[in-house]
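ok trying again, last paste got cut off:
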Amino acid sequence: MPPSEIHLSPPRQETTPKTDMAKLYSEKIVVQCESEDEDSPLRPVSFRWRGEEFCIEKILKSRQDWGFPAGAPRRKTWIMRRHRTNYAVRTECGRVFEIYMDRKTPEYTWVLYRELEV
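nice, full thing came through this time. structure:
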């Protein structure tokens, strides 16, 4: 092939992780909850993580998760479903976290899933 017909591909650009991505933790936390009245659901008001107390300024979003985990067999039953309530919360110090309450066992477990960059 003559040199004039050689086509070089453009140089590869190095990929760097974005700074606006979430930081994944998936660690158990202790959460304080309250309810407005007897009929309303519990809502988190503060949590303790790695020895530090975080007061929740605002619940930005909440949703129920009834889906099946990744890798579940084709034949599924209701017991295999996740039973979680997910919350995106902003703390008084301005940090935003995604936490969830896992209701699969009689003793509900709270997990700090990730910190979101805003």
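cool. Residues 6-19 have pLDDT under 50 and may be disordered. The first strand starts at residue 23 and ends at 34.
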